[in-house]
C-alpha cells in the first residue's frame, strides 16, 4: 500500500473513506451478481471476485482510488471461454493472465496505453456494450432456459425462435426495475449506482408478493447462495491446457491492463493525482492470480465504482478495503436473501450499465469524420460484435499499422520528390 496516500490523514478522512466504501459496496453487490451470471458462471462467483479483487487492489494497486472487481468488459470474453473450455479452465486462464500482467508491469508496458489507438478502444467498448445489452434480452423476456451461444447473431436467432415462450411477469418485473432505476437517476442524480439496488429490491419484492410462482429467481435457477467464503482450490493444470488457454489468457491480460489503466487515468483527472502504472499492472496481476484460488473470475479496475468512490469523498485505499469487507459481511449475513432476487430484475441493471459504457458521443464523432479512424472504429466494432474481442482488437491493430505505414510511405515519397 502506498504510504503517501496517508500523508496528513485524519479521522475525518477515515470517516469519509468508510462511508464511501460502504456506498461502493452496496453498488458492487448487484453488479457482481449480474456480471457473473452474464459471464456464464454462478452468481456467488461475482461476490467472491468483488471481495478478493477489491481488497487486494486497494492494498497492492498503483492508484489509491481504484475499485476492482468483475466488469462488463469481460462478459463476452468469459462467456466464450466457459462455453468452449468450461468454468474450471477459465480459472486457469485467469491465473495465467495474472502472470502475464506481472510481466507487463515489470516491462513497463503501462506506458503503451498512451499510444493505443482511440478508435480501437471506442470500437471494442461499444461492441462489448452491444453484447452485454443483447445478452440480457432473454432474461428481460423471461427466456431463462434457452440455449446460449458464443456469437451475437446466434443468440439473437435463439431469442427470436423462442419469442412465443416469453414470460409476461418477467417483462413486468424488468420494466418496473428499469423505470425505478431511470426515475431515481433522473430525480436523485447523486444516488448514482444506488439506483440499481433500489430497482432490484423494489421489483423483486413486488414480484414475490404478487406473482412469486410465475417468475424465476437466482435461487430457483442457481440454488441458494452460500453464506461463507470458499476454501482455496485450484483445478489440475496440464501442458495441453496451458497451450490451449494461452490465447484466451493473453486477451484477458490485455483487457485487464487496458481497463484498469484507463480507469486509473480517469481517477487521476478527477483528483489531480498520478497513478503508478507499473505498480497497478503488477497489483492487477497478483489479483488475477489469487481470485481463481477462491473461485473468482478475472477482475480489473471498474470505472463506475471508482468514480463513485471519488465522488463520495474517498481519499485513500481504506475506501477500497472497506468496500470489500462490506461485501464480505453481506455475503456472510444476508446471502440467503439474495437467492430471492428475480433474474428479470438484474437484466435492466446490466442494460443500463451497457448503455453507459457504449461511448455513444465519441463513436458518433469518429464516424462523422469519415476518415481512416472511422474505418478502424467500424472494423473493430463489427468484428467484436459478430466474432469476438480478440478478432476485433487484432484486426483493428493490424489495420491501424497498415494505414500508418501507408501514411509514412506517402510522406517519404513526397520528401523524395521535393529533394529531387
Automatic annotation (TrEMBL):
Q: Where is the SLC26A/SulP transporter domain?
A: 14-379
- Predominant subcellular localization, coarse grouping: membrane
How does the entry describe its membrane topology? Multi-pass membrane protein
Q: Where in the cell is it found?
A: Membrane
- GO CC terms, sorted: membrane
Q: Superkingdom of the source? A: Bacteria
Task: List all membrane-crossing ranges.
Answer: 18-38, 44-60, 67-85, 91-109, 121-146, 166-184, 191-211, 242-264, 325-355, 375-405
Which keywords are on file for this protein? Membrane, Transmembrane, Transmembrane helix
Annotated GO biological process: transmembrane transport
* The protein, known as: SulP family inorganic anion transporter
What does UniProt list as this organism's lineage? Answer: Bacteria, Bacillati, Bacillota, Bacilli, Bacillales
Amino acid at each position: 500500500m502506498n504510504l503517501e496516500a496517508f500523508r496528513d490523514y485524519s479521522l475525518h478522512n477515515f470517516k469519509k473513506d468508510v462511508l464511501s466504501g460502504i456506498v461502493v459496496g452496496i453498488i458492487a453487490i448487484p453488479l457482481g451478481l449480474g456480471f457473473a451470471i452474464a459471464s456464464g458462471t454462478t452468481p456467488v462467483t461475482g461476490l467472491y471476485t468483488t471481495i478478493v479483487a477489491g481488497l487486494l487492489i486497494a492494498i497492492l494497486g498503483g492508484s489509491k482510488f481504484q475499485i476492482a472487481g468483475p466488469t462488463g468488459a469481460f462478459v463476452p470474453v468469459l462467456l466464450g471461454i466457459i462455453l468452449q473450455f468450461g468454468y474450471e479452465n477459465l480459472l486457469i486462464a485467469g491465473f495465467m493472465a495474472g502472470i502475464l500482467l506481472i510481466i507487463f508491469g515489470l516491462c513497463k508496458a503501462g506506458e503503451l496505453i498512451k499510444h493505443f489507438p482511440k478508435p480501437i478502444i471506442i470500437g471494442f467498448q461499444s461492441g462489448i456494450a452491444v453484447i452485454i445489452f443483447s445478452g440480457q434480452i432473454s432474461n428481460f423476456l423471461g427466456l431463462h432456459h434457452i440455449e446460449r451461444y458464443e456469437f451475437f447473431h446466434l443468440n439473437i436467432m435463439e431469442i427470436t425462435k423462442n419469442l412465443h415462450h416469453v414470460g409476461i411477469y418477467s417483462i413486468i418485473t424488468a420494466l418496473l426495475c428499469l423505470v425505478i432505476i431511470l426515475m431515481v437517476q433522473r430525480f436523485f442524480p447523486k444516488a448514482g449506482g444506488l439506483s440499481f439496488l433500489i430497482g432490484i429490491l423494489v421489483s423483486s419484492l413486488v414480484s414475490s408478493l404478487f406473482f412469486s410462482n410465475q417468475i424465476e429467481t437466482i435461487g430457483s435457477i442457481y440454488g441458494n447462495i452460500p453464506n461463507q467464503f470458499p476454501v482455496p482450490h485450484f483445478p489440475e493444470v496440464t501442458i495441453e491446457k496451458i497451450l490451449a488457454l494461452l490465447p484466451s489468457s493473453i486477451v484477458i491480460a490485455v483487457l485487464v491492463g487496458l481497463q484498469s489503466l484507463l480507469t486509473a487515468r480517469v481517477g487521476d483527472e478527477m483528483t489531480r493525482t498520478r497513478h503508478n502504472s507499473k505498480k497497478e499492472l503488477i497489483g492487477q496481476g497478483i489479483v488475477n492470480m489469487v481470485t481463481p484460488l477462491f473461485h473468482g473470475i478475472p477482475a480489473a479496475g471498474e470505472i463506475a465504482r471508482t468514480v463513485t468512490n471519488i465522488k463520495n469523498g474517498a481519499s485513500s485505499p481504506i475506501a477500497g478495503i472497506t468496500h470489500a469487507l462490506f461485501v464480505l459481511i453481506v455475503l456472510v449475513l444476508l446471502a440467503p436473501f439474495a437467492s430471492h432476487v428475480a433474474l428479470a430484475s438484474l437484466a435492466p441493471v446490466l442494460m443500463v450499465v451497457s448503455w453507459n459504457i457504449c461511448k455513444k458521443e465519441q463513436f458518433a464523432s469518429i464516424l462523422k469524420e469519415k476518415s481512416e479512424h472511422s474505418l478502424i472504429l467500424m472494423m473493430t466494432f463489427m468484428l467484436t460484435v459478430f466474432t469476438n474481442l480478440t478478432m476485433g482488437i487484432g484486426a483493428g491493430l493490424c489495420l491501424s499499422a497498415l494505414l500508418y505505414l501507408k501514411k509514412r510511405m506517402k510522406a517519404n515519397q513526397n520528401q523524395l520528390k521535393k529533394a529531387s
